[in-house]
Amino acid sequence: QLMEVERQRYEALREGLDELIGQELLAQEAKARGISPEALAKQEIDDKAGTPTDEEVQKLYDDNKAQLGNQSFDNLKPRLVAYLQQQRTGARREAFLGELKGKYKTVVNLRPPVVEVGTGGRPARGGSKAPVTIIEFSDYECPFCKRAEESVQRVLGAYGDQVRFVYRDYPLPFHANARPAAEAAHCANAQGKFWEYHAKLMASKDLSATALQALAGEVGLDGAKFDECVAKRQFKDAVEQDIADATKVGVNGTPAFFINGRLLDGAQPFEKFKEIIDEELAWAKQGRD
């Protein structure tokens, strides 16, 4: 609970700080151009944001029709347009402020709360000396974990050796197949095929004992050794250790990611990962400089 309070405090401070930074950047650029900050905002943000097209408005309505009840498109159109316009303006503002941060050196010294999370000696991908370590606690039967896998793969593809990714188990008690799948993944790791088997588990809707065995054959595991490993539950203690370690750092659901100790909870889009990773890389670079 204290960790959550600290995280909320940081988010509030960061939101206020970002607003102050934005105002200062606009003021400096306005002064350089000899115009007011308001005129600059209109020129570079409002005028360049553009307006939503009829196709975009219709698509927003169609995509959310189930949540909108029986309200007609014509009645909702002004609100839909306003919503899309706000999104466009916000995106343009962020883009312009990003340009200004490149022009006027901006350093943020406010650091987020972090928690020490060990890798547990679990399988890792990426650079062994990467400045950013991502530790995921996950459940093979969790639909949100499967959805987050797309973001994980994008992160690994985008950052390469700048990131080290470690997968740890947190099978939820109400997912009957999650723990057997986690133990089976450890058995695959014993044969040097963890990541191949991991990918199969994440992509599979069927995690029954028969399916686990079939997936082992698909990645080229020695079937007899795999079956013996699974039957004897050779890695039961390893999974239990992951659960215990996750509980110690406040994990109570999946997926839970710790990026250099910073918690990112749930199936987040790539952009959320990118925001934190880029900050961590910038801080690492400042440390070297």
Q: What topology does this entry show?
A:
Blueprint: H1 2-33, H2 37-49, H3 54-63, H4 73-103, E1 124-126, E2 132-138, H5 143-159, E3 163-169, H6 178-190, H7 194-203, H8 209-218, H9 223-232, H10 236-248, E4 256-259, E5 262-265, H11 270-288
Parallel strand pairs: 2-3
Antiparallel strand pairs: 1-3, 2-4, 4-5
Spatial sequence of strands, sheet with the most strands: 1-3-2-4-5
Give a short account of the largest sheet.
Answer: 5 strands, mixed
Helical fraction: 55-70%
Protein structure class: alpha+beta
Question: How would you characterize this protein structure?
Answer:
The chain has 289 residues and is α+β, with helices and mostly antiparallel strands. 62% of the residues lie in helices and 9% in strands. It has helices at 2-33, 37-49, 54-63, 73-103, 143-159, 178-190, 194-203, 209-218, 223-232, 236-248, 270-288, and strands at residues 124-126, 132-138, 163-169, 256-259, 262-265. It has a five-stranded mixed β-sheet with strand order 1-3-2-4-5. Helix 5 (143-159) links the parallel strand 2 (132-138) and strand 3. Helix 1 crosses helix 2. The chain is globular and about 75 Å long.
Concise overview:
The protein is of the alpha+beta class and 289 residues long.
